[in-house]
Amino acid sequence: MKPIRNGVKGIIIENGRLLTIKLEDERGFWYALPGGGQEPGETLHEALRRECREEIGSEVIIRDLRFVRDYIGANHEFAFSDSEAHQVELMFLCDLREGTDPRSGDVPDEGQLGIEWLDLDRLDSYRLYPLGLRALIPRHGDPSVPVYVRDIS
């Protein structure tokens, strides 16, 4: 198994919509929160700011840590290509810096088609990964929603 890696993700909500990156595979479109892996020497906030510049071409203001998730590749639908992966993902609420207009960044993820705003009240109709967050993100302010969400799919 590969070494455990830290990953950071941004939860950016405006006007009842969630900002995501849009990707496509043989089953169609799917979505993910902007973010990625922490590099040696970076703080979590530095990594998230870098990833947001690369993927959504935007500066962000990082707020509270909202969710922590283990991603153990062998347990998920992408196990055929990711079975050796184990990543601890830290998801922070973020705001776009004033005057920022998100777009595909200069260093998008492999396969990234662009960005897309998804309606919070329709998240369950999208392939937003991890799928288990579709029910939790709209309730991000509810103190009964756990911070540690385990190895959810």
Q: What does this molecule look like?
A:
By secondary structure, the protein is mainly beta. The chain has a single domain, classed as Nucleoside Triphosphate Pyrophosphohydrolase. It is 14% helix and 40% strand. The chain has 3 helices and 8 strands. It has helices spanning 44-56, 79-82, 133-136, and strands spanning 5-14, 17-25, 28-32, 35-37, 60-72, 86-96, 112-119, 128-129. Strands 1, 2, 3, 4, 5, 6, 7 and 8 form an 8-stranded mixed beta sheet that branches. β1 (5-14) and β2 form a beta hairpin. It is globular and about 45 Å long.
Defining traits:
8-stranded mixed β-sheet; 40% strand; mainly beta; Nucleoside Triphosphate Pyrophosphohydrolase; 3 helices; 14% helix; 153 residues
Quick take:
The protein is built from three helices and eight strands. With 153 residues, the chain is mainly beta.
